[in-house]
Design brief:
It is found in: Cytoplasm. One of its GO terms (cellular component) is cytoplasm. The protein is mainly α. It is elongated, with a radius of gyration of 23 Å. The chain binds fe (ii) ion (FE2) (2 copies). The site of one fe (ii) ion has 6 residues, from helix 6, helix 7 and helix 11.
């Protein structure tokens, strides 16, 4: 199918996810709804073939195989998760915020949804960003230090003294109980009325939220099923080595 001659409006209506891809590439679809993709690419100085390749790529399933991750060293898994955090904050959230802020519905039902979303979403973003920073500043930092100790690049004595109260088991348990972010997103999604033809922006937003929720779920799954088990093993190992060292002295 030749995407280049299609109107932006048609492309997005057929695949809601294209709205976010175009957005990352610098095309705000709602500004060019009636233009063909080729025309907009020319206007924006983008290579149309590359844009189409990006659109096609997003349709393929690119889910990461957790089993593959399980085989990686723990510091790489932490880097992978940090990169995912970065993408959530730099790519997904700005698009969602933009879409929510520019909602404008003439109909009563949608107007109510719009008002709710504009109130609730900033609260969600605040909690979400807090969760990410807490993870990076405490858990990830702790795990990376354990790895360094295990590789003999860091002295263990000061480390255990500094982190007497922290342990991975507790963090892991809290993490599993609190799937707050997902609850927040689901709550937001429940506010939507059923899909409506005249409300392209709402439909695009709903699809983007659905996709985001799925990403968050996979992310939490990697943390719960890959990161925590590996980190617990590493913590045990490092502690055991440290205790042996103390006994020797
Ligand atoms: Fe995370
Ligand atoms: Fe998390």
């Amino acid at each position: 199918m030749d995407y280049s001659q299609k109107k932006i409006k048609e492309l997005v209506a057929e695949h809601y996810v294209f709205a976010s891809v175009l957005y990352y590439l610098g095309i705000e679809y709602y500004e060019f709804e009636e233009d063909s993709l080729e025309k907009v690419c020319k206007h924006k100085g983008l290579d149309c073939k590359k844009v189409i390749a990006e659109l096609e790529q997003i349709q393929e399933n690119q889910e990461i195989d957790n089993l593959k991750l399980l085989g990686l060293p723990i510091d790489l898994i932490v880097e992978y998760l940090k990169h995912a955090h970065y993408l959530f904050i730099k790519k997904d959230l700005p698009f969602l915020v933009k879409m929510i802020n520019r909602l404008q519905s003439a109909t009563q039902t949608y107007f109510g949804v719009q008002k709710d979303l504009q109130e609730i979403f900033p609260l969600f973003v605040e909690d979400f960003v807090h969760h990410i920073y807490e993870e990076e500043d405490t858990l990830f930092d702790y795990i990376l230090s354990l790895k360094k100790i295990n590789d003999e690049r860091l002295n263990p004595s000061g480390f255990f003294y500094k982190h007497q109260k922290f342990n991975i088991q507790k963090f892991a348990m809290d993490h599993e109980v609190h799937d707050d972010e997902m609850k927040g997103i689901r709550y937001i999604m429940e506010q939507f009325p059923p899909e409506s033809e005249g409300e392209l922006n709402f439909n695009v937003l709903y699809a983007a939220l659905e996709r985001f929720e799925r990403k968050l779920m996979i992310h939490a799954q990697i943390e719960n099923e890959v990161l925590f088990p590996k980190a617990l093993m590493l913590e045990k190992q490092v502690r055991r080595n440290f205790d042996d060292l103390i006994k020797l002295n």
